[in-house]
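Quick entry between incubations.
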Amino acid sequence: MVDSTGFLFELLGNDAGSFARRGRLVTPHGVVQTPAFMPVGTIGAMKGLTPVQLAETGSEIMLSNTYHLALRPTPGVVEGLGGLHRFTGWDRPILTDSGGFQVFSLAKINRIDDDGVDFRSHIDGSLIRLTPEIATDIQNRLGADIIMAFDQCPPLPCDPAELTAAVDRTIAWAKRCRAAHSRSDQWQFGIVQGGVDHHQRRICAEQVIEVGFDGYAVGGLSVGESHEEMVDVLTGLCPRLPGDRPRYLMGVGVPRDLYAGVRAGIDMFDCVIPTRNGRHGHVFTATGPLKMRNERHRLDGGPLEEGCDCYACRTFSRGYLRHLFMAGEMLGPTLASIHNVRFLQRLMGRMRDLISTGDLATIPDEFPVVLETDGNDES
Amino acid sequence: MVDSTGFLFELLGNDAGSFARRGRLVTPHGVVQTPAFMPVGTIGAMKGLTPVQLAETGSEIMLSNTYHLALRPTPGVVEGLGGLHRFTGWDRPILTDSGGFQVFSLAKINRIDDDGVDFRSHIDGSLIRLTPEIATDIQNRLGADIIMAFDQCPPLPCDPAELTAAVDRTIAWAKRCRAAHSRSDQWQFGIVQGGVDHHQRRICAEQVIEVGFDGYAVGGLSVGESHEEMVDVLTGLCPRLPGDRPRYLMGVGVPRDLYAGVRAGIDMFDCVIPTRNGRHGHVFTATGPLKMRNERHRLDGGPLEEGCDCYACRTFSRGYLRHLFMAGEMLGPTLASIHNVRFLQRLMGRMRDLISTGDLATIPDEFPVVLETDGNDES
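Done. Structure below.
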């Protein structure tokens, strides 16, 4: 039953041979079938795609970055122009991250302490401060359906003392974020950090769950660890997360990692990879990536991927796509991005279907790429 | 009645106070209402727009450039991938120019004589030859619905001897192009040169008409002459062109010039200006151009143009478009280009309606920009 604020997460079935689960996340702006992949519209726009084109890929929820929007156009402008949904023209569910990851990866940090972080904008060098309260307030004002706690994402590898400090801070900040959250029409997710250390992950999970969020994210993965380490963390951590709440693995979008994450019981993923690879002319297919500038596509009249129902595959040949990339034409990145996002949505859709019938293990027959180490060609 | 090759041009009405005429051009790939504006997909793609988005602007015919396609991907690739319509995914009418204009404006010419032109590719410096026969053969192979004679476009200003030589060559080449044309499912238009010299224009028109083409183009304008000089040439020349054949003013797309051209009796126009301006964040409106990076749009929740029915105006605010341009996001150029092309198609559609009722002179009331000298902000 949808709660009074318009939200619901319900589980619809489980896979037979893994921890994978199929579900439905209802938000005030629509329904998201899970496991779900969320493409990333960093500044409130998918690079090269209109909202209509994004919807046609089967995407049901978009992620935008609080860090980027806070710097430009600023929360006041987004709020003044009606909030993220109206601003971006995407009237379906939106999730904003908290800016934590970007502060620790993109910005030049000036000072960090238990209260928050002072950093310099990567755009104009101006000095900016983020604290749990400020990050939450900004997200309240941006107005996404789901907002995230402000966390400290430690690097990998990371020495134990540094990792412990990041986990402690992530826990303390989670409490402050929850207390600062002021909108009932937004769900707020907590984030579990802890690197590849099972003990730290467990401590962080217990404490963040104790705070009580609407969903839980696994942060700090896909930042340098091996695939096996990622799977190891997920295998240990997922059973400790509340079974009735959505679980979100942040920053993951390589087919192999998506499959592993779904098998471990993850419900949501996000990544820039389909659009970033698309802009570079690198195209996903079920059997592995294509590089569109390759000479062998020159006279190829076939679609990017046989059997794909995306606009690019229905309309254009590989030879035409190659021509667009060789000529540096804007349409090439747009079409390759449309295909790549649709590819991941087809993969997610097929995984949802197979979870329902308990047959998720057959995915590699249809998408051999989920077993390939280079399914991602530039993660 | 459509002829055996699938073509027809018929006039449907005339304006009361000008030489403007409304018509219908039927081609094997569909109908074009005239006067028509043809957006330019230089390399076989509209910059930033899919064929679906282009069709949604109300565009009924696209122009592509033989010069660019001849260099890359080469006619063999386009032909091998099924011809321009299949290659580009635009299954409606297409017109290709002959390459003459580009050879004389973009390429480094090595040698020019009565037979043809040797020039170096602006892409890789390779030596390439175009003659009337080669330019026609390439266009036969590209497979547009309408192809153009290979002409010599003189610069403006131009000394009389040079102008006479260009006109003589354009006439001689027109004959050879007509003789070389080998496809019955393509119409071929001749081009009239002659700069701003009425005498040369008359000689060229008479001789090119004598050759006998399916339509006639006015070339060599919008290359540096004043608006008044352009109008003067059109006023003198149009009455000398066969009344029952389409008349095409090449390279013109500024609102003021479109209005003047239509009043003089022109049926077709093409220009890169709506997409080029769009990429730069310069947006057409009925009352004059907007620059989207301007600070005053920051919190403006209104559409690019009140009353416009384009996708950009129906979905997004000026404030959002400004944000896209400030952030250098690809979607900005796409949306501004969609609006600009739709703007010109709305202008053309309204001119067609008003010709039918004999009221074309009221256009400036609805589109004051057609009287402005800066209706074009970077032609």
